[in-house]
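pasting input
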Amino acid sequence: MIDQPRLQGDKIVISVDAMGGDAGPGVVVSGMAESATKNPDIRFILHGPEEALRKLVARRRILAGRVSFRDVADVVTMDDKPSHVMRNGKSTSMWSTLEAVRKGEAHGAVSCGNTGALMALSMLCLRKLPGVSRPAIAVLWPSRNVQGFNVMLDVGADVRADAQDLLQYALMGASYARNGMNLKRPRIGLLNVGTEQHKGRAELKQAHALISRFADQANFDFVGFVEGRDIPGNVADVIVTDGFTGNVAVKTGEGTASLVSELLRESFRHSLLSRMASVLAITSLLRLKKRIDPSRVNGGVFLGLNGTVVKSHGGADATGVSSAIKLAFQLAQSGFSERLAARVASTASLTEDAQAAPDTADKKNQKNEGEQKA
Amino acid sequence: MIDQPRLQGDKIVISVDAMGGDAGPGVVVSGMAESATKNPDIRFILHGPEEALRKLVARRRILAGRVSFRDVADVVTMDDKPSHVMRNGKSTSMWSTLEAVRKGEAHGAVSCGNTGALMALSMLCLRKLPGVSRPAIAVLWPSRNVQGFNVMLDVGADVRADAQDLLQYALMGASYARNGMNLKRPRIGLLNVGTEQHKGRAELKQAHALISRFADQANFDFVGFVEGRDIPGNVADVIVTDGFTGNVAVKTGEGTASLVSELLRESFRHSLLSRMASVLAITSLLRLKKRIDPSRVNGGVFLGLNGTVVKSHGGADATGVSSAIKLAFQLAQSGFSERLAARVASTASLTEDAQAAPDTADKKNQKNEGEQKA
């Protein structure tokens, strides 16, 4: 019933934008090499100035015979406005990276470039899924949950979202949690300033009603309103919010975690005794770092497009790039994009049914519970 | 020129709501005792069921002769809606706490109760300052700045704010930073999803223009748009945002910091060696805790009212309550409320001037730089 990835064979091909990250193409190629070491089934198409890229790739034996190149001269910079990129972006490495997915040459795309431009070009090149009005960016967030992470979306595709958009985010986030984290029945929370039903903005109250109506047929649990402290918490697996709030929350969390690590390092440098303690404590500290290191959970996934696009952090190091590539690989391998398309299409028709006959639609499809993964 | 606090003498009187916190009045009285130990000039008016409160206070020798009581039977609970409290709240300990400030019996009020109810009753009892359309709640936030903290507002007085409100938040936040953190010329940042001028919502672009126009005459530096990661950063001393975003950001930061501490504790419990390391590392860890412990920076200050109100965290322990009381004490001692009133009044007239003649108003009052503290 669900389409398989368009390319056959055991190899998964990831289309990688070599340009646009803060640290340049060297770090991107290092990240590819890390991924290739861990994963024999991965192949790459690399986009950017071919001559320079061939030299970087040649230094990594593990990449030999696993990379093909697309020579592209232009680059989208961090300062380019999305509107400018929409008009002039087709000659860039970013566009070329996306086009390889559109043409079916690659199973997914990864770029460290400018988020706004990448979203604008992704919408232009890959088009939105039928039934989706606003695509969203989803990130994984270290949390107290068993799986160690929560999904949060939207974290910045669009600064606004109405109730209907928030419902779509809930559906897409639930699909992502099922495929990316293997949760059969993810718990969805709607971000607000309090958990009480009377709190927050009008569109949130509408979204609350809409999402709770679709919980059963879309096979998730709706836990209602959640607060900022639940983003790293264990009451929900998926946190739904508009792109403005989500973006601020993600960056606040990153900033707080990095301040705490910095102060921790400082406090261990404070005296001779504390330096000795830090030597003994080093494995404990590394264990902690592994758990909360943003570069290990690097990668915002664009949801709601015809194809998988992963946005790696602009300041990502090789481990960060590798982790974004791994995410694109996993999603490609699970056929996530096709499953999500099927899910959104079926829910879009249910939404129409529900609007026509609100009482009966709620009971529809409940028997499918647990059978579908998308 | 600036009014002194209404009560004379060297003693500062803080009006304390004994009820409404998660842990009950015992913790509130312990917090008062901690404050009284550190501060010989503090006196209290305590509101709640007098008989029970007298017993709690009698156990603390340091409080002998320093507390007067107001016997009040009713309590605002965490579940009470602000609208319900507006109609029925006048018989509660919360109302009585505020009324002591309104009547001039106390220099400031502290409550651990329901935030929405406390703001609603504060507006009803103390009234907004002339020229303020929406009061705001400001918190201190651990940061990389020299002073160790940033101010952020609004963190939840109101879920919406237009450009004019954001300007008022900037003015009030600047005053608070001058009085609370002794910064002559605070740096103000406006929270957005990126630092580029074209990003974000329409009202933020308007607010950007408004705030930068008033920076000089209101004696602050406007650093423009800042991001979530700048909230614990060092590019701005005051972060201005609407109450929805601010509330989510504060709670996300709290949640992240507490997750990191928890994982840190876990990783030190992991093996015998790491337990030994933690014994050696204990001073380093306590040093860190002291720096980021939310209970040491406990207290949201309500800005824009005729009087000082500090909201202590509902789950605050004695140290948290004591820190909220200390904040109310410091603000009362500096005559902050009166200075802020003067500042807002003068700016309100400047705003009117500026709207009438935009070009000339900008230069006005620049010579006052550094002379006024409000």
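fyi Chain B has two domains: 6-127+305-334, 137-297+335-374.
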